[in-house]
Write a structure and sequence with these properties.
about 325 residues; alpha/beta; ten-stranded parallel sheet; 12 strands
């Protein structure tokens, strides 16, 4: 058990933590263990996270990804945080899929601005075969630019992941969102197992997994520990772990939820880094709401990737010039 006291964790316990980190393919992290991490005094937790971060990553480098919505609005799901759900009145209209030329122009801009990964999201429950056909054409074209590709298209049917892999898809994003116990408070139209099944399809196809969650949805610290446990115990854990800070959009059920304390968000980043040491931990949605000092603490806690660009699907994101200025202040360079 990891201590949550003012004393440092003993060398024997540090060795146990190290064993857990190295054996990423074995389910090692229990919810109580992760909650004990989250309960540590803040300096102790950050010290552990930063020490582990330096073992596996360049502590002063950040990877840049750009996200574009290739198909916006009209989603039949009832995710309580999402302005793209057709049942909510958020001002987001159901739009057709973007043309290849429009997507390629955005990809070229992203590359020119320094992004190395181009992520494409679509507001579907899951893609139809015609959608997969279009996406494979887009993936091939973006790959030709020399960018890594990532797609988040919803629930995949058997065989679809293989088609995306053949087109050259590098990463597939499918978030667990929260712990299994809290999940039903946020979503009812899709089961937790549906998400796990899609992740298994992605793994079998040989595509890297991008999988994280959203914090600040009214969940407890125990639920955040449950989310991290689910992610860390995937076999293996995800190569990319986006941690989203809830962006509250008027018209969604979660609008008006009490905002999560900034330090609690940083603690979640640190726990992700400690339990998934080799993963790229990404600051995703919600950075526009974060002060520079909060973002700096997240980088100190082990975050080493961000979404870069003025917009994330339908919500705002810090301007690229603001990010460049922050990196300069912190002495960070981009990968």
């Amino acid at each position: 058990m990891i201590e949550s006291s003012t004393k440092c964790v003993s060398s024997e316990k540090k060795k146990t933590i190290g064993d857990q980190q190295d054996r990423s393919r074995v389910a090692q992290w229990s919810v109580p263990q992760i909650q004990a991490l989250l309960d540590l005094p803040f300096p102790d937790l950050i010290h552990q996270a930063q020490s582990i971060h330096r073992q596996y990553h360049d502590a002063n480098a950040v990877q840049l990804s750009t996200l574009i919505s290739v198909k916006t609005g009209g989603c039949p799901e009832d995710c309580g945080y999402c302005p793209q759900a057709a049942r909510y009145h958020t001002g987001v209209e159901n739009q057709d899929m973007l043309s290849l030329d429009t997507i390629m122009a955005a990809a070229q801009t992203a590359k020119a601005e320094g992004a190395t990964r181009f992520c494409m999201g679509a507001a579907w429950r899951g893609p139809k075969q015609r959608d997969i056909d279009r996406m494979t054409e887009i993936i091939e074209a973006v790959k030709d630019l020399g960018l890594e590709t990532c797609a988040t298209l919803g629930i995949l049917k058997p065989g679809q992941a293989e088609q995306l892999k053949q087109a050259g898809l590098d990463y597939y994003n499918h978030n667990l969102d929260t712990s299994p116990e809290f999940y039903g408070e946020v979503i009812t139209t899709r089961d937790y197992q549906d998400r796990l099944d899609t992740l298994e399809e992605v793994r079998r196809a040989g595509i890297n997994v991008c999988c994280g969650g959203i914090v600040g949805m009214g969940e407890s610290r125990l639920a955040r520990a449950g989310l991290i446990a689910q992610l860390a115990n995937l076999d293996p854990y995800p190569e990319s772990v986006p941690i989203n800070y809830l962006v509250q959009v008027e018209g969604t059920p979660l609008y008006g939820t009490e905002a999560l304390d900034s330090f609690e968000f940083v603690r979640t980043i640190a726990a992700a880094r400690i339990t998934m040491p080799k993963a790229m931990v990404r600051l995703s949605a919600g950075r526009r709401q974060m002060a520079e000092t909060m973002q700096a603490l997240c980088f100190l806690a082990g975050a080493n990737s961000i979404f870069y660009g003025d917009k994330l699907l339908t919500t705002g994101n810090p301007e690229t010039d603001s990010d460049k200025a922050l990196f300069e202040k912190l002495g960070l360079r981009t990968l």
